[in-house]
Structure formats: C-alpha cells, structure tokens
Amino acid sequence: MRITIDHSAKTPVYLQIKQAILAAIRDGKLVPGARLLATRELAQQLGVNRSTVAMAYDELLADGVVESFVGRGTFVARQTLAEVTALEGRASRQPPNRKMVWEGVFSERAQSPVVESLLDLYQVSTLRDVISFSGSFPDAGSFPTRDFRNSLHFAERTLGDEVYRYGPVAGYERLREYLAQRMREGGSDVTAENIIVTSGSQQALDLIARALISPGDTVAIENPTYPGAMTAFALAGARLLPIPVDEDGLCVEVLENVLRVQRPKLVYVVPSFQNPTGACLSWERRRRLLALAREHNLPIVEDDYGSHLRFDGDALPHLKALDDTEHVIYVSNFSKSLLPGLRIGWCAAARPVITRLMAFKQNSDITTSPLLQSALWDFCRRKRYDAHLQKIRPIYHARRDVMLKRLEADFPSGTVWTRPAGGLFLWVTLPTALDATELLYQVRQQGVVFSRGRLFYSDNPKRNTLRLSYGHVTLEQIERGMRVIGTTAKAMLGRGASRAAERFHTQTVPLV
C-alpha cells in the first residue's frame, strides 16, 4: 500500500491517510485480517507526526473498518464492498462542525523529537495497577503530612492574609535565609541575596536556559542524563554536546578534550547520585571540572536533587562549596526528599545571574506560593526536615540492597549494574542481545514497569539499558517485580531477541 500526502491540499493530512487506507481496502490491496503498519512506522514512512496517523486510525476504528488489539496491533475488519465505498465517500468530505484539527498548528518546538521523547518517558510513571520502578518519586508512606499540616496552620495563623497575596519574586525571605544558612553549613559562600526560590528545580532549569542560552549555543551535557534538563536546553535552542558518564560520574577528561576545539555556553552535571546512573562525581573530577570552568570561563549548572539522600560512605562537597569564583549555578529541590506536591526548589548563584532569573520568573509565574514557602520554612526551622531525612535514608538503603540482591539472583548472566551510595535509582545494562523496549512490553503484561534507558540519551542511545527506581516501592514489591523482570529477560534471551513493542497508549504524567 502506497500513500501519497499532499500538504498543500485543504483536506487535513489525517483524512488523506484515512482515504488512502479505505481505497486500499476497496481495491483489495488490504484484505480483511491484514495488519496495518504501526503508527510510529507509518508516520516515519510518510514524514508526518505520529499523532496524525493515530487520528486516522482512530477514525477508522470508530467507523468499524479496523480492529485494534493491545499488544498485537491494528487489523482490517470484515467489510462489504458497499460499506467501504460508502465510508470512502464520507471520508472525502470533511463533516461540518467538526472539532478543531490541531495538526499543523503546534510550534516546531512542541513537535520536536525531544518533546516526543519526554512524553514517551513518563507515560508509565504513575500507573496504579502495576509495580512501578519508573519515575523518581520519594516514599509516599513516609510523607510527614501531619507535621507539615501543623506548619501550614502556623503560617496561616502567624502571617495571616500575607500568605494569600503575591510574594517576592525571589521567594519568601525567611526561607531564603534558611536555605542560605544550610548551604553555608555545607561550605558554600552564599547569602539570601544569592538565592531564588522556584516552582521545583525544573523551573530553575527552564529559567537558566532562558537567561543563558541563545539559539545555536552548545551545552555540554552528561550522556545519559536527566531528560528534563535536555528538554529545557533544547527548547531554548541549544545544541546538546554529549559527554559520557562512567562509575565516577561525568568523564571530565573527555570534556577537557572537547574544550580544546569547542566552546560550549555551559556544562550541566548531576554530581551526586547522577540521574539516571546513580554515579557520584569523584573528588578529583570535581576539582578538575572547576579548574576547567575557571580556565575557559565556563558556567557549571550543578543539579543536586539528592546529595542529602546518601546512606553509604562519606559525603562529597557540592561543586558550589568548592567554587570560590562564582562559576557554579546550584539547583536543588524538596521534591525528591520531602513532598513532591510542594513544588518548591531553589537556585543559588552569583547576584547577576539571580537578577536575570528573577526577571524571567516574574514573567513566568510571578511567585512561588507564599503559603507553601512560609509553611516549609516553619517545618525546616523546627528541625522536622532533618528528622525526616534521618527517617528515610535507612528505608532507601534497605530497598537498594534488596534490589541489588535480586539483580544478582534473577537477572541473566552478562547483566551489569551500578551500586549507588544514595539517591533513588540504579542503572542496569542487559546483555546486548536484549532490547529494553521489548522487555518493558513483556513485563507490562505481568504488572511491572520501568524506565527504558534509551530515553535518557541525547546521542547514541543504548537499547539494552534501563533505570530502576526504588524510592516508592515496598520491599515486597521489589522482590516480586525484580523477579518478573529478571526471569522475563532470561526467557527472552533464551528464545532470541524479538521485535520492539509498540509504545503504550496511557496517560501522560508530570515530569520527575
């Protein structure tokens, strides 16, 4: 079956696809029971967005022309020639009062591959009917909801109407002072004037990208890395320059070689329990990275989602704590260690940087909730945050250990994995014959999901990798879920690698 698309025609592209499929059925080129190409495959063949093909298939499905089966695909249903001819005539005319056709309306950025990958990544993160090793969520069972509720009541009683008004763009002053003091205790030379409170660390990354990146600029970024950072920089127009990661974090020697021939605008790094590998940037590499920053006048964006979640070994200083020349822009949040729903993060940087970020935040959301900021300040000043960290570290330690035990016992020979000293997840590399997409498809049928590793790469993705999060699963769920993944991987290896499964059609959830 050959489909020709006329982008200059008044008929929407999805209706052209529908008409072509109906014509192929009428002419006998597609017989009852014939399997249609997967939406992604046909979209690539036609050079259109996958959602356009999905709209055409949905139309055919609604008309009863095709049948769709989860895990098997879409097939031509049994139709009489008269029925197909009638449907074909209807398809050639766009019905009146039809819903808005959004295809072709979205911006180039909204239809970019990086956005498609981001949506793909988070489609399975919060499914309720599965054991989910996807997403980097903290343990909901440990949420200090009663204590935080008390702090909310305190903030409301003490500050009154103030918490319901617009607050300072930079954030609630007392919270900023607390954050600055906490960072000074860790060795960073900052004051409240160097801090802006944001709606999670993702907003901080978006503001940094908008303030520092011009279209065409290059950003040196870990490979693999946090997809939210890739998206923030790519949507600002940056070209991503991938730098490999090993067991000691970012390969600084590779970056050093790159800097001899290229001048990236900045380098993005997650030095503590790197997302997704769980690796920690070594002491020597931290010092060398800062030396390169000084030598090349290179800003470093340090994303510290979870250095406070260490449960093994000695803590390493933040890059910001080692930085006496204001090259480091430090980003952190309370989402991974406290309550994700707060959506409170912060950025610490030189005053000129904070000033620019404030201008963009003013235009973005004016301010982060004063009520939540003031409640968080009260919660922290009463040492409840420190007590919470003391409570959850051994929980994550135990879960990581069970996950490592199951990797050793259940996964096929040739599998390798990281052993993080903290954080929320570890990284698995399967034997090269296995495809993590097919494995995900197989284990989803058994009630288990994980994050495919290929979605964390900006370049040269490895299809046999996956990220496993232990933050929000119980010990019993880890035992059962890991056994399912491991035994399924062994079975797949035994019968040979099969075709990659199609993407799941599930609800998209927030970036984490």
UniProtKB/TrEMBL annotation:
Molecular-function GO terms, alphabetical: transaminase activity
KW DNA-binding (keyword) present: yes
PROSITE patterns on file: HTH_GNTR
Matches recorded under CDD domains: AAT_like (cd00609), WHTH_GntR (cd07377)
Alphabetic keyword roster: Aminotransferase, DNA-binding, Pyridoxal phosphate, Transcription, Transcription regulation, Transferase
KW Iron (keyword) present: no
Domain HTH gntR-type: 11-79
Stated family: In the C-terminal section; belongs to the class-I pyridoxal-phosphate-dependent aminotransferase family.
Name of the protein in question: PLP-dependent aminotransferase family protein
